[in-house]
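WARN no homologs supplied; continuing
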Amino acid sequence: MQRFHMRAERRDPLVPFSRPPDALPVRPFDDEPPGIDRVLAQSPTRRRTFDVVVLSHLRWNFVFQRPQHLLSRCARQRRVFFVEEPILSDGPAHMDVTTPRPGVWVAVPHLPEGTLAREAEVIQRRLLDELLAARRIHSFVLWYYTPMAMAFSRHLAPLATIYDCMDELSAFAGAPPEMHTREKELLARADLVFTGGQTLYEAKRGQHPHVFAFPSSVDVAHFARARHIVGDPADQSAIPHPRLGFFGVIDERMDRDLLAGIAKARPAWHLVMIGPIAKVDPTTLPNAPTIHYLGQKEYGDLPSYLAGWDVALLPFAINESTRFISPTKTPEYLAAGKPVVSTPIRDVVRPYGVRGFVRIAGTIPGFVAAVEDALREDAAERIRRVDAFLAQESWDRTWDRMYRLIEEVIDTAAEEEDRLDTFAVATTAD
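OK structure emitted
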């Protein structure tokens, strides 16, 4: 059988300086890397017992998004250890471990106040090693969300290394200057690179031989509840209609001028903004009687808020920090049956804009006109086409495809080890 070749070599430690799928889903884009369906169809049945160790810049209990969707599904099959960035606190260094859901352990390194960067890397390496030993994590897949974690994990010898690149982190405000160097090192180590969108895939495919685009998926059943919910959460019930809503992190990617412009152009419209404010001064956000910041909500409560909106918004600025984003909320809004208006984010324009699922506008007058059009629409035909499209975009299908690729890497490496061992025995016998 023709096999999908992955890196199968054993890596020497380096001294640091510091459910089986029922059917294959359709491919999200015609130019997805050739051969992926053949790889999935031919994935071998040989399996190993292994854990998954995740190194993340995002907190598990922050916004419920791509990592939580994927790794919650992973935890149905494997133990998942989700290692977050450190927190500075009083007392000695230690690892705080909690279990937010079955199969997932969240590990937060606590470092003493005043710890320098060089010391932090050494301490994090020790704490990570202690976690692996204490939890008897011997065979494992190493799953990176941040290249910065290379500083304290490059000595590890995983069965496979996965880089789930969900954003171009170097383009974000406050990105460490070492980000590019660390990512280059991670790409050299990784067996598989997954990208959170098509634009990011196009940027990374020339940097690694095994890059696969896995754009944002959706839990359709969860968000489709919004189509049938009657009534509002208490903090939204007094807000008049029409309501234009957004949920997600409110940070430097938000087009604040656009929000202010909408509020000024249509003072009868009310903007409902749900989510934590991060990396921006709250006093710099548009402040008008018709803009309502309701704070962060639980993932389980989002359909209740969506149910009361007239239009859902993606009011992102067009800049370096949004060049590669693929907003998870796009299919979530659509699953709720809401009309959506977005600025021209590439991974929203394609596939959602070109299919007529999302209205795209790049100026304040254009955005206002698009919202007005959305408020007048007869949504039945759009919803029918949206539902057919989203039926192929579930997180379950996305995880199934990822998992089979990971198994292929591990099986290929194991077969190579067996071949080398057989060759060694034969050579000794001779």
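The chain is about 35% helix and 15% strand.
OK
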